[in-house]
DNA sequence: CGTCCTCTTGAGGGCCATCAACGACTGTGG
DNA sequence: CCACAGTCGTTGATGGCCCTCAAGAGGACG
């Protein structure tokens, strides 16, 4: 929570960080240059200046076309930590919670994936987390072997799969930042805004998960979550029609 | 920080979660089965029961062989958020800090990669974070185009690259768990243990980074980090010879 | 209508951020 | 050589946030 005004000044790169040793093979036929042109600040061909919105349509279409529809009852387990990661899910309906539980029984919910999001794309051997249905969940599930076979030959699919996992990583890092630097009500508001953004809906938005789920997501106790809701309501930042229906203001 | 004793009982999967709709193409010539055998709990061939330690030797060797040696001065910038991700680094010497800074100037350090770790493997277009040298850092840097060309044709490399990013994701999730559920001294101890584990050294271990860096990593103020050090020392969990040299007990 | 669960609100206390001061060290310039 | 400023690490005092314990309201369900 330090503000980095002074700091150790990450400036003064002067002539450090330059290539000092051209290394044996000059890579790609750039005879005179110790360092190929890609080292310079040139953006890659496909990257427009305007932030290019990543699409996962190839990946999603593939799973939708080849996957099997499965249903999960509220609070049932979709995939369990340590078990073989034999499948990938694409959510069609409902909300999932992805979490881990430590040896003391403390639970951390990393995400609440919903319609149009993948669950299980990040593992190939065994699950490193657990996923449970929050409400009634419908998914398309695809055997991992099928996905892997296609990944081996389909470049576009590979790019999208990588991009998806990268996005997960960036998401987690954003959460780390939030957890260490913002206070309860702000964390709740951020969560609600993010959640609302995943719904195209206007008007009141329904929260499928319990206060405890929210608490274990944003790192508070259920009581503090409740107080944070009351605080946001009192200060006019949200409208809370019922405990489950809210609107951002 | 709830303990999940009662909870909504993630049991009772009974006959939910079964495939309800065989979906058009039965995939791989399993005529009668609506669901190929990989759906069952069979581990994949390569996965031994004993936790298989992932090796990144193909990836590392490739970078070592084709990369360029670069040096970075303490506190110089290795890669900057938003700039083109044209390169991948393998650290040979020194310690790096990978971080992001939010709009209020709050900094979150995600990791302190060191010898034998990669920096920048997670992005392909632009950096989603910043990396700075903590002390004098020597790296092998490889143009991304070279890596991508090889990834396109080298399956082993692809697997290792994916595994590396997966490991980063799991690491971040572990950090999230730690940040929300453990207190200052415990967080510091976890960090020190992790840091010590990355050194094969016996005896006292030197900390290259400042208290502020540690603070921004484990989500405390510098003063609290200092108090946590004192606390661990007082309760006999660490031996602190100088502010930079410690030993786990 | 009682039981159970969730959500909410209050009271008390602990952890930690903040402000402040101090010693140790370093590099600078007189 | 020494005064001086600047940085870093440490410790103390104070206050705020939030966890814990506790109690109560409201709804779901048998």
TrEMBL record, chains A, B:
GO terms for molecular function: DNA binding; DNA-binding transcription factor activity. Keywords: DNA-binding, Transcription, Transcription regulation. Residues 182-249 form the HTH crp-type domain. One of its GO terms (cellular component) is cytosol. Residues 1-46 are annotated as: Disordered. Signal peptide: none annotated. InterPro entries: cNMP-bd_dom (IPR000595), cNMP-bd_dom_sf (IPR018490), Env_Response_Regulators (IPR050397), HTH_CRP (IPR012318), RmlC-like_jellyroll (IPR014710), WH-like_DNA-bd_sf (IPR036388), WH_DNA-bd_sf (IPR036390). CDD domains: CAP_ED (cd00038). It comes from the Bacteria. SUPFAM superfamilies: cAMP-binding domain-like (SSF51206), Winged helix' DNA-binding domain (SSF46785). Residues 22-37 have a biased composition (Pro residues). PROSITE patterns: HTH_CRP_2. The keyword Transcription regulation applies. Pfam families: cNMP_binding (PF00027), HTH_Crp_2 (PF13545). This is CRP-like cAMP-binding protein. It comes from Primorskyibacter sedentarius.
């Amino acid at each position: 929570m330090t503000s980095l005004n002074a700091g150790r000044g990450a400036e003064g790169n002067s002539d450090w960080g330059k290539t000092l040793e051209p290394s044996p093979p000059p890579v790609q036929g750039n005879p005179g240059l110790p360092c190929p042109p890609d080292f310079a600040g040139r953006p890659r061909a496909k990257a427009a200046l305007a932030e290019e919105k990543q699409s996962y349509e190839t990946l999603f279409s593939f799973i939708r076309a080849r996957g099997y529809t499965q249903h999960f009852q509220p609070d049932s387990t979709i995939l369990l930590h340590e078990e073989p990661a034999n499948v990938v899910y694409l959510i069609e309906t409902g909300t999932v919670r992805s979490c881990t539980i430590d040896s003391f029984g403390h639970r951390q919910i990393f995400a609440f994936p919903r319609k149009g999001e993948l669950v299980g794309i990040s593992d190939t051997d065994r699950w490193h987390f657990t996923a449970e249905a929050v409400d009634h969940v419908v998914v398309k599930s695809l055997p991992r072997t099928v996905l892997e076979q296609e990944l081996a030959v389909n470049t576009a699919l590979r790019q999208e799969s990588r991009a998806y996992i990268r996005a997960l990583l960036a998401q987690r890092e954003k959460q780390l930042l939030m957890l260490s630097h913002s206070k309860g009500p702000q964390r709740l508001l951020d969560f609600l805004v993010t959640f609302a953004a995943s719904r195209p809906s206007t008007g009141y938005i329904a929260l499928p998960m319990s206060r405890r789920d929210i608490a274990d997501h944003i790192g508070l106790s259920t009581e503090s979550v409740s107080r944070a809701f009351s605080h946001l309501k009192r200060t006019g930042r949200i409208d809370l029609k019922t405990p489950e229906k809210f609107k951002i203001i």
